[in-house]
Amino acid sequence: MGGKRGRTRTTRTECAFHLSNRGRGISNAVACGRSGGGAGWCLPSVNSPAAPVRAGTVFSTSTPSRLPMVFDHCIRLVLIGVCVATARADIAVTVSVDPASGRTAISPLVYGVNQDLPGYAATARRQGGNRMTGYNWENNASNAGSDWMHSSDNFATWVMGIPDAQANVPGIAVTTFHDQSVAAGGAYSIVTLPMAGYVAADKSGTVMTGQVAPSSRWKAVSNTKPGAFSLTPNTGDGTVYSDEFVNFLVNRYGSAAMPNGVRAYSLDNEPDLWSHTHARLHAAQPTCVELIARSTDLAKAVKRVDPAAETIGFVSYGFNGYYSFQDAPDWTAEKATGSYRWFVDYFLAKMKSASDTAGVRLLDVLDVHHYTEHNAGGVRVSDGVDFSNLDANKGRIQAPRALWDASFNENSWIKQWFSEFYPYLPNLKAAIATHYPGTKLAITEYNYGGESHISGGLAQADTLGILGRDGVYLANLWLLHDSPAPLYAATAFKLYRDYDGAGGEFGDTSVGATVSSQENASAYAALHGSSGAKLHVVVLNKHYDEASAVTVQIAGATRYTRARVFAFDAASAAITERAVISGIAGNQFTTTLSALTAAHVVLEAEGSSFAAWQAGNFSAGEIASAAVSGADADPDGAGVSNFARYAFGLAARGALSAPVASVSRVEVSGQKRLAVTFTRQADAPGLSYVVEGSDALSGGWSTVATIAPGTPTVVTVNDVVDISAAAPRRFLRVRAVNAE
Q1: pLDDT tens digits, residue range 111-139?
Q2: Does an H or E element contain 647, and which?
Q3: Secondary structure in 3-state letters for 119-146
Q4: Are 86 and 70 in contact (CB under 8 A)?
Q5: Cα 577 from chain centroid?
Q6: Whole-number Å distance between alpha carbons of 38 and 31
Q7: pLDDT tens-digit profile of 55-103?
Q8: Whether residue 310 lies in the annotated active site
Q9: Which of 138, 270, 410, 505 is catalytic?
Q10: Domains of the chain, with CATH numbers?
Q11: Which superkingdom (predicted)?
């Protein structure tokens, strides 16, 4: 993930207090300034001369637009045209958010991809798919299987843009991929290791039916090399070694525990379809026993070379793989050996047993693929790019509900015949809890179609919210359609990972959020850690034709007074900032979302930011005037700027009734020292208080302590200098620094 972008604005508020050692008592003195240039804000004591007001940053907001009235029902009569207009109210939707409930860590890896999306820096990148089953790292040959004439060729390097002259450099198809992950800010890389027994030996095109493995067109794969590893593999020994490949990557990048290491290895790809997709590599249908043996052996090899790497299996293609390993020949017999509802249970239990025997966890992540089977408008909604099929578009928007919502009637053979395994995520998580607790859950391929259409954008945004809320560890979108450009799919990711174009992110802790109508809306809410300073709510209006009047109700004692709104809709795949919602009262507000809109609402707690403080203490007209509500402004002429009032928890308006801070003498370890007491904000991201000391007001300030917002709000900081011996004069000052 790329680093943060955009500017950091730093403002400082300074106060200096001095105490004479000649018995003159305590008095307050004020020193104003700002390092790095720009305006400063001063905190004089009561009755001090007013600090100068300088031009500062103007904060502006606007009131929400009025709810639109839609007129329709035009009735035409014979001979006389009469148009009767009736007002159609927006669909009412209630979103209930409880920041104290349902707290679940959101894995950043759910925002992953298989193919890079335009303008989006993914958190996780996977090098997988059918090609990797036959990938030979020694010369980068791979086989397409049934995807393209069972061709063995140079596709693995071609697709990465590697020149033909370098196409035989060992491992270059993978190292180029991982180099891209590192360059993108250290995205979590997943590399797929072949496990079916053979890989492509050459790049000579189609493997004929008479050349099924074993033959000269294939090389055998062994997970364990009997001799020493080499960074230059022996291409003439007839065998490709998986552990040697992992060692090659560790030698180049460090282990998975290092910043640039390859983090995870997939135990092949969709083994339940080997005999279909790769009939000339693994012609026989794989058995359950075979899969466990191959998975165990490869996982052991990975863990011996890089114990920190995560292993991911069994990378099933879809539901019948989950259920019976694609009707494996030995499934009926193997199922009878234990209490297994479906093959997922069996796989987890057998991998746990193998791990217990080996003394090391061999399966870190259970991985299944999920391509929606929902049908609407006469088609599977993930198929094609014919967006004139409105029923299919509407069905696509609803399809992600099958992941979690038991009330959703997915129109599929799965729901019809295997409803006991529906919805999918609760059943997968239950299998893990029963048969191999602690195993993480991944969906490294999924798609709902419509990547270039608003319906696909909404489905993708909905899916990301579900995955984060429901505790999925890792997920990677697989593009089914890259033309037209998948702009809506990319924008759905950015709604969570870069909603403001400056690196703004959805929170990392999911909290409770419900909607009054799952068919018409979805909502997801999150905080950053345990801080309630900002509450993020993603709301989707899924109605195809009508706007929604969305009422958001927030539980708890934290009061939210202002919200910024970022959204995309059917008119454009670009995220734009909408009207600021200000003057929120009682933790409830209503806003209108047009049909087919995805919005990211960023709520600011009262007092948690200067902008929120402004919104709670000034009218819209006053906020528009920097002379009244600006950070430097002192609208009441009390000698205290607005920013100082905000930072030190002072009354927003009027004269001050008590000093801003107080200075006292204390005794610490037999020394006499100064101490300053002041009030801080309880929860304000980006705000800090720097206490500094000096022997002269003119300069030489050094940091005594840096204090973050928190509770109790009244804090006392002791100086570090003994004023009875070392300092004939001593001054303390407090600078409030806002880097939000």
Answers
A1: 999 999 999 999 999 999 999 999 999 99
A2: helix 642-647
A3: CCCCCEEEECCHHHHHCECCCCEEECHH
A4: no
A5: 20
A6: 15
A7: 222 222 222 332 333 323 332 223 233 334 444 568 999 999 999 999 9
A8: no
A9: 270
A10: 11-57+630-738 (no CATH), 70-103+513-606 (2.60.40.1180), 120-134+156-196+241-373+412-447 (3.20.20.80)
A11: Bacteria
